[in-house]
Amino acid sequence: MIWQNLWALTGLSLLALPVLIHMLSRKRAVLQKFPTLRFLNVTRLLPTRSPNLTDIPLLLVRLATVAAAVFALAQPLWLSASRKQSLNASLARVIVVDTSRSMRGVLANGTSALDSARALATTLATDASTSVVLQTASPSNVLAGAGAWLNTQGGRGDVVLVSDFQAGAVDSAALAGVPQQFGVRAIRLGTVPTTNSGIFLHTARTNVTATADSARIGAEWTLASGVASSVVLLSALGDRAVVDAARDAANVVTSPSAPDTSKLVAIVFPGAAEVATLTQAAKVPSAPWMGEALVDVRENEMLSSSAASETLTDTVIGSPFAIVARSRTGAPVVYAAQSTVNGGNRLVFFQRGSASALSSAALIAAVSTSIGVASDIPESETSALSDDALRRLERTARAVGAGSSASDQRATTRSGLSDGRWLWIVVLLLLGVETWMRRKVRDNSLLEVA
Amino acid sequence: MSSLSPAVVAAINDLELAARLVVEGMRVGGHRSPFRGHGAEFTQHRVYRPGDDLKHLDWKLFGRSDRLFTRQYRETTNVAVMIVLDTSASMMFPEKGLSKFRYGSIIAAALAHLVSEQGNAVGLITMNNGKLAYLPTRGGKPHLRALIARIDRLTPGGAFDPAQVIARGAELLSRRGLVIVISDFYDNEDDTRRELRHTVQRGHDVAMLQLMSDDERVLPYKGQVEFEDLESGERRLIDAGSISAAYKQSVDDFLSRCRTGAARDGIDYALVRTDTPPEKALRDFLLRRNLGMAHAHVPMATAK
């Protein structure tokens, strides 16, 4: 038995009402026609109230009526086996898709792990009666919110994590945010190996040159031979040396992770011959990765701080361009759009500042970071959680009627099922009985007063 | 025939049938008419008792036997009986079951039936809707049926002046006869008693049938009851339980006044409770009259 409106049971305090009414009600004199009043002398009247309860059967019927009405308002539900089965068929699901850079690696089937995760999320969403897909680079941070949302849905629910599960990405502490009655599933999609392979992602298409002496240990990453960079730098001929210097500077502040060659980017510096052509062919970015890259570059702190120090005249940059970085005065420093370079669509970043400016090196670093597989420290984690560790994190969703009254209550409320209607019928019957009893009392009150 | 309970009698809508059943129920064999007329057929001698009218002394017998005997007579002429039926609103009590009015109607119809069956003349006088309504004393079945039908059409309520009705009823009797008043005698107690006394003084035989229900006698109610006077509509809120003893005493006093007043004035008096089967009440009344005719009322019965 589940009470769907538990608060309504507070109405049981109303049971005191009929008792008080019976105790405080004034006795009503019965009218009796009589042949003559000549022998009926006026007397002192009795008190009209009696401290004793009168008409106990009527009081009991009234109490039962109030109790039945309160119980009906509380919407009881008897959880039969068939009802449990029906309620358990409905499932609320939160699908958390890890969108961190480590998920941008290409799987063996040629698609990125992130795209596969999104497709899988769509499929998982259709399996549930109610679902929500959360895409985040930090799955741990959204688990508490996912649990809260499941709580609002009531009934069975689970959280499905689709990630490469880099070590430290999700742990039991983060999963504690999901209430115990809800299930947790972990689906691994990604390229991060479950065993520590040392240098992560750089082994395939980058070379690492380590140097060590008595004072320091250094490491230099360079692209492996034959690996083409997906970033094209376009500048005036006279600025070529400056641009190379900016690229070198960028390599200092970030590791040259293997670029995703499916993501083509161009950085155009002032004075480049292609500026007019690229500007003319510019259009709104159409590929999803371009949007993600734009967001990444815009959020790059080094770029935003270096752009802020630029002193440029303000200008209007309209559609299809998106402003990526501004100076302190609000003047656009870097803006971007999709355009055609050498016959291929690229995400083109236009740098208004000088090629020798700090913002140029920061732009190169931000772009190569954004289209690289991994570069920031958390994303440089070289191993993923083992399968056993994942299994320990998983749990199954608790079925309705298996012990959690609060979640069961929400589940049954959402289902719209209630046995309250039977109690309303009882209330109507009791009201009929009460009316009949009152009439009977009135009819019999020739001798007694009600 | 077993007694008809008041409930059974109340369920019979046909007043004539009810009256006949009552009469049949009380019939226990052939008997003499209880209605004493003033005929002069000698029936027997009785030893003289002080107080007997000296004119009924049989002097010849005294001469032969040297003892005093009084001559007794049986009626030889038809007697005229005028029935006075109370139609005041107080007769509508009790509202459920057999009311005093219905009970009185049955008694009146049964008496009329009995009187008429024995070849006597019977009439009815009452008040209907505030006006005097009467049927003169006559004999015969058609008249009996008309009388019963008139009783059946009566509705209680409205004004009822018992003194006026009794006086008029007595006037309607062309010669000395019997006036039977069926009432609860609540109205104008003193005037009613005075008029009854006058009727007796005019030479008529008078009988009082006082109807009363049990609820009127013992006031069985408890708690606070608002009583409404059936006649005046006045209401009085009373703690019934606390006054029941005083009420019963008052009613007993009232009944006692009626009884002693009737005895003092030479009136036949009978208190009839409405929970008594009508034929039993009627039989008791008539038996008492027969006894009275034989003993207590001999001087009256033998008066010529």
Can you describe this structure?
The complex is a heterodimer of chains A (450) and B (304). Chain A is of the alpha/beta class. In chain A, 38% of the residues lie in helices and 18% in strands. Chain A is built from 15 helices and 14 strands. In chain A, the strands form 4 sheets. In chain A, strands 10-11-14-13-12 form a 5-stranded mixed beta sheet. Chain A has a 4-stranded parallel beta sheet with strand order 5-4-6-7, sandwiched between helices. Chain A has a two-stranded antiparallel ribbon with strand order 1-3. In chain A, a hairpin with a 2-residue loop joins strand 13 and strand 14. In chain A, helix 1 (16-24) runs antiparallel to helix 2, helix 8 (240-253) packs across helix 12 (358-371) and helix 10 packs across helix 12 (358-371). Chain A starts with a strand and ends in a 7-residue tail after the last helix. By secondary structure, chain B is α/β, with parallel strands linked by helices. Chain B is 44% helix and 22% strand. Chain B contains 11 helices and 10 strands. Chain B has helices spanning 6-11, 15-26, 59-65, 100-117, 141-153, 162-172, 189-201, 214-218, 240-265, 278-294, 298-302, and strands at 41-47, 69-74, 80-85, 121-128, 131-138, 178-183, 205-212, 224-229, 235-239, 268-273. In chain B, helix 2 crosses helix 4. Chains A and B meet through strand 2 of A and strand 8, strand 9 and helix 9 of B.
